[in-house]
Write a structure and sequence with these properties.
The termini are far apart. Helix 2 packs parallel to helix 4 and helix 3 packs antiparallel against helix 4. The protein is elongated and about 75 Å long. The protein has one domain. The protein is mainly alpha-helical.
């Protein structure tokens, strides 16, 4: 009985050793349509991120406009205008957060897309054709990196405005009267100047993103 048990253990050890000695399984070859699916997803994500940044920019503009109406002497009902400003601020927080999420998802989709292209290019046998494909890939990656940097720069420009608005809204909430609003006049001018700079950056980033993804869409016949 002990002999049979020992033999069984030995057989198990031999089997385990033979399995360990085997080379790892080769990765599954990419499906012919895999690259097409990844490209479609990448282009779709590009359109979504440009839209989300545009929506966030518009909402910051709307919030700033509500703030200006309250801080200026034109407000006839400060309580009502303050309530509207609070709603605009909430919308701004949500939409700027959504834009940041879309930028992150665009980066992730880009990594998948470019990794897929690299894998496909690695299988090209003709040296000249392979070199051309690698050059085109490198150029596209550079353009994508520039678009991503521009979108992030927009977020960095909008965030101080959001924070400053939050502070000034709290200031008004603690002392909602014409005198307090008038005291914010210097801050209001600075905030609007920041806004103009940030909005110009946003427009440039959106235009860059649309140009890049529309070109990719046209090249691929989407």
């Amino acid at each position: 009985m002990r002999t049979a048990k020992t033999a069984g253990v030995l057989m198990s050890l031999v089997f385990t050793a033979s399995m360990a000695a085997q080379p790892p399984a080769a990765p599954e070859p990419r499906a012919e349509t895999q690259g097409i699916k990844e490209t479609d997803k990448f282009i779709k994500q590009g359109g979504e991120v440009a839209h989300a940044v545009g929506v966030a920019k518009l909402q910051v503009q709307n919030t700033l406009a509500s703030y200006n109406a309250l801080v200026s002497s034109s407000s006839k009902n400060m309580k009502k205008d303050y309530g509207k400003l609070l709603k605009e601020m909430k919308e701004m927080d949500e939409k700027t957060a959504a834009a940041r999420t879309e930028v992150g998802e665009m980066e992730t989709a880009g990594k998948t897309y470019f990794a897929g292209r690299e894998t496909t290019i690695a299988g090209i046998k003709d040296p000249q054709l392979k070199a051309t494909a690698q050059q085109r890939l490198a150029a596209s990656q550079k353009q994508h990196a520039d678009v991503l940097a521009s979108l992030r720069s927009t977020g960095e420009a909008l965030e101080p405005i959001r924070k400053e608005l939050d502070d000034q809204i709290k200031f008004l909430g603690s002392d909602l009267n014409p005198g307090a609003a008038a005291a914010l006049a210097p801050n209001a001018k600075k905030l609007n100047d920041q806004g103009n700079t940030a909005f110009a950056k946003a427009d440039e980033a959106i235009n860059n993103a649309n140009t890049y993804f529309n070109a990719l869409k046209s090249e691929t016949g989407r």
